[in-house]
Amino acid sequence: MDPMGVELTPEAKGCHLSLVNFGYASTSALRALPSSPSQQQCAEKMTFIKAVDLGFLIVAAAVTPAVLLSPGWAPHVRFHLDRHMVAADSGYAYTVPVQVATPFPFELAADGLAHPERSSLRLSEDGKPLGPAHSLHAEIRDDGHGRFSFWDGMLYFSTSDGSDPRSNGRSYVASDLGQLPLAVWAVVILGDVILYVLHRRWLGAFLSRRGGRARPAA
């Protein structure tokens, strides 16, 4: 007698133990077993369970490597700063909003309070790199010399010599590699967990229905 109150033959106990090892120990799973399963019937059932297990795990995990390898297929974005959109901040600092469309689901990641160095944006002046990036805004205002920061969709920057980028005749180009939003990472991880849990429930229900049809009427 199983602890759940289901009478088991020695052969059924062996199949039940196999189901327990795969996480399908339930009344539904037991009812899916013939009253006296043969070794062949048990082997067929376990082969089916293993195949479905593997299939769902492959599907659930397929997206994760794509996300992990996203830097390899992320879009590269390059754009000129529009001097008509540049505004004086204070000191040596100037600001310009960054409004660049990127292919879904990528974005131009910006620094913020939660992730102060998340941005990978690069800025150049007539082809010469400016920096350092992720500079404090106070340092950009007080010290200049090319310091910049891409913060919450706004680019704070300074020129190499303290001149006004709106009138010095130089070209300012920003470039960046698209990144997947943090929400995408969260959804992928959560989706893998949910798919794995749900497929086990689905398989248990499927075996129960299949077993119910296979049993002869009393």
Characterization of this structure:
A hairpin with a 5-residue loop joins strand 2 and strand 3. The C terminus is likely disordered. The protein is an alpha+beta fold. The strands form two sheets. The chain has a four-stranded antiparallel beta sheet with strand order 1-8-4-5, with no helix packed on it. The chain is rod-shaped. It folds into two domains: 90 residues, no CATH class; 105 residues, no CATH class. 42% of the residues lie in helices and 14% in strands. It is built from six helices and eight strands; from the N terminus they run ααααβββββαβββα. Helix 3 packs antiparallel against helix 6.
Summarize the SSE layout with pairings.
Blueprint: H1 10-21, H2 27-31, H3 39-68, H4 70-73, E1 76-80, E2 87-88, E3 94-97, E4 122-125, E5 128-129, H5 137-143, E6 148-151, E7 154-157, E8 172-177, H6 182-214
Antiparallel strand pairs: 1-8, 2-3, 3-7, 4-5, 4-8, 6-7
Offer a concise description of the structure.
The protein is an alpha+beta fold and 218 residues long. The protein has helices spanning 10-21, 27-31, 39-68, 70-73, 137-143, 182-214, and strands at residues 76-80, 87-88, 94-97, 122-125, 128-129, 148-151, 154-157, 172-177. The protein has 6 helices and 8 strands.
